[in-house]
């Protein structure tokens, strides 16, 4: 199956373009250490965070810390934001193998490329600075839309383009649901962090380079 005629391609970031475990696990370990030093009794395997990659940041901590304590959640978000930035500054290559090659191919073939992530603006901009900026026509994240769900943001992007000639690329149920609710096809990235959530995908890929044949 291919979608060569699709003009507008919307990419999730974490688990789709970015191998997030390189960034989030070390940053989350730093967050846990600081919270423990402040007296919080928290015992979590940092790898647990991978279950929630792609969720909104507050949802990540509500699930991980098993709490609705707004003060603790807000503190954790600020710490993760700080430490992710530090880690991103130190790591040279954060992308899955082939990401920039695919981006270059799609742009050369006249595709319009979008980002759509549940992250914040600061994180998205750091990712763009790592080599994506020259390829992306329209970077978007939840914070820019008052933390609305992806299906809402995708609808707004489609309305702005006056087109339904879109496809969504992602690794989590949020990506699949956004595509389904807007009646567009979706590619499920089985190499990401939500392989069990891709049952509704129009097509699944094991490597991002497979997009060279699909798009």
Question: Could you describe the 3D structure shown?
Answer:
With 215 residues, the protein is of the alpha/beta class. It folds into two domains: 8-19 and 94-214, HAD superfamily/HAD-like (Rossmann fold); 21-90, Orthogonal Bundle (DNA polymerase, domain 1). It has eight helices and six strands, in the order βααααβαβαβαββα. The chain has helices at 21-37, 57-65, 70-90, 99-108, 121-132, 150-161, 173-181, 211-214, and strands spanning 8-11, 112-117, 138-141, 166-170, 186-189, 203-205. It has a six-stranded parallel sheet, sandwiched between helices. Helix 2 (57-65) packs across helix 3. The longest helix is centred in the middle third of the chain and has 21 residues, at 70-90. The mean pLDDT is 95.
Helix content: 40-55%
Widest β-sheet, arrangement of strands: 3-2-1-4-5-6
Q: Quickly give the CATH architecture of the largest domain.
A: 3-Layer(aba) Sandwich
CATH superfamily of the largest domain: HAD superfamily/HAD-like
* Overall tally of domains: 2
Provide a count of the helices: 8
């Amino acid at each position: 199956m291919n979608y060569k005629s699709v003009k507008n391609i919307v990419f999730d970031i974490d688990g789709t373009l970015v191998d997030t475990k390189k960034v989030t696990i070390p940053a989350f370990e730093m967050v846990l250490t600081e919270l423990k030093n402040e007296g919080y009794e928290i015992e979590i395997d940092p790898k647990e965070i991978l279950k929630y990659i792609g969720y909104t940041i507050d949802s990540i901590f509500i699930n991980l810390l098993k709490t609705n304590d707004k003060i603790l959640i807000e503190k954790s978000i600020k710490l993760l934001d700080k430490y992710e930035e530090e880690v991103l500054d130190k790591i040279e290559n954060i992308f899955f193998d082939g990401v920039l090659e695919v981006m270059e191919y799609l742009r050369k073939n006249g595709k319009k490329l979008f980002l759509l992530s549940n992250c914040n603006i600061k994180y998205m901009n750091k990712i763009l600075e790592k080599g994506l900026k020259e390829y992306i026509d329209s970077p978007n994240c939840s914070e820019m839309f008052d933390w609305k769900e992806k299906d809402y943001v995708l609808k707004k992007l489609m309305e702005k383009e006056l087109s339904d000639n879109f496809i969504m690329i992602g690794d989590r149920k949020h990506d699949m649901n956004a595509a389904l609710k807007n009646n567009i096809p979706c590619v499920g990235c089985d190499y990401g962090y939500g392989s069990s959530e891709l049952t509704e995908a129009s097509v699944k890929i094991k490597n991002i380079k497979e997009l060279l044949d699909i798009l």
